[in-house]
């Protein structure tokens, strides 16, 4: 099988960008299939740090980057990202689906306004217009990338959409005008800039599979932010799990080969919503400081906690994860003890799966297994280079999940990674 899917198994920021960059060397296409510029994927090559929000991470390795139909694209952010990459000497080979939805200025304003109205019940979104854009897609009042290439199409869409948005602006007391002519002018100009990248990416990938090309799918966010299976309503608005590849890139399930689940060696979360293993003590502080846990997109501090295998087990089941990649193991160095959550109790009863109701997630009591900590290690190139305690930690995760460990990441740089050959 010629495709590999990389997905996040927690609440995002597991190090997907780094691992996708690592595997991109063996791929010809790297494809984003969901999400938008709410994502922030970091790639570190020698002294160069790239932070990508919508362009697939594989472009840094010079691979063909594809933004699939399941993504939502803010064309202003995309054109800025393209310029940034070109200025830094990355030769871009980019393809954007004509069916991907466009994040319009009113989506961003409405994202902010809805959060304001939610008050203390806010989701803590990235305010990038993601939720309102996906809502419009599902309500069949969206604008798609292909519409930016035709004045007639764009005007037709806007004439149906703008009246209701103007009413919403009044309800939310948004003091901004929505002028059809101005929007048409600005977005047609952007369409012109993007035109050479726009294509039927599903058809292109179909051809790539026929030609036996290797394709890598780059997940954004993490399973607990999946709109169906995450901690709803404190989730994003897309299908983050591996199944999202099929609808989000327009490829059949039989094209999916290996599915790599990225597991950060502990847990983080940005934004609101319950986090069962959250630590607000010195250990939480250690993880945040040593792991530089501040959002790549919004710079907000990430909440930190122990690794939660109830979460990762849920993610592996939903996506059919075939291999694990564990990242940020180095961040645990220097702790006296390390804990892993291996189960939940809810009102005294042991749970088999991850609860659906957010109220229950907020009430679960994690059951922990404790491990001895370990000291700093120098850049390891195999499991046997790790301290025994770190090896035990990894082998417990592998056994608990019953999925083989393929990659261990021990630093942000591309070469701070080793692969375990089976
Ligand atoms: P993504 O959204 O899943 O791509 O992850 P982010 O890029 O938002 O956040 C992961 C952060 O951890 C980035 O700053 C990476 O450079 C960094 N990182 C990735 N892997 C490792 C690792 O193994 N060790 C350390 N210390 N940092 C890592
Ligand atoms: P990557 O791809 C971490 C979170 C937001 C918020 C919730 C909804 O870098 O892992 P949204 O703007 O999507 O409506 O916000 O989802 N969130 C992320 N958290 N990493 C991400 O992406 C995220 N993308 C969205 O913080 O809690
Ligand atoms: Mg991120």
Commentary on this structure:
The chain has helices at residues 16-24, 75-87, 105-118, 130-138, 151-171, 180-194, 201-210, 244-249, 282-290, 309-319, 358-363, 388-401, and strands spanning 3-8, 29-32, 41-45, 48-52, 64-67, 72-73, 94-97, 101-102, 198-199, 215-218, 258-264, 267-269, 303-305, 307-308, 323-327, 337-346, 349-350, 365-372, 404-409, 417-419. The longest helix is centred in the middle third of the chain and has 21 residues, at 151-171. A hairpin with a 2-residue loop joins strand 16 (337-346) and strand 17 (349-350). The strands form 5 sheets. Strands 9-7-5-2-10-1-11-15-19-20 form a 10-stranded mixed sheet, sandwiched between helices. It has 12 helices and 20 strands. It folds into 2 domains: 3-89 and 201-419, Adenylosuccinate Synthetase, Chain A, domain 3 (Alpha-Beta Complex); 101-197, Adenylosuccinate Synthetase, subunit A, domain 2. Helix 3 crosses helix 4. The radius of gyration is 21 Å and the shape is globular. The chain has 422 residues and is α/β, with parallel strands linked by helices. The mean pLDDT is 97. It binds guanosine-5'-diphosphate, 6-O-phosphoryl inosine monophosphate and magnesium ion. 6-O-phosphoryl inosine monophosphate binds at residues 8, 11-13, 38-41, 123-126, 128, 130-131, 220-222, 225, 236-237, 270-271, 296. The site of 6-O-phosphoryl inosine monophosphate (IMO) has 24 residues, from helix 4.
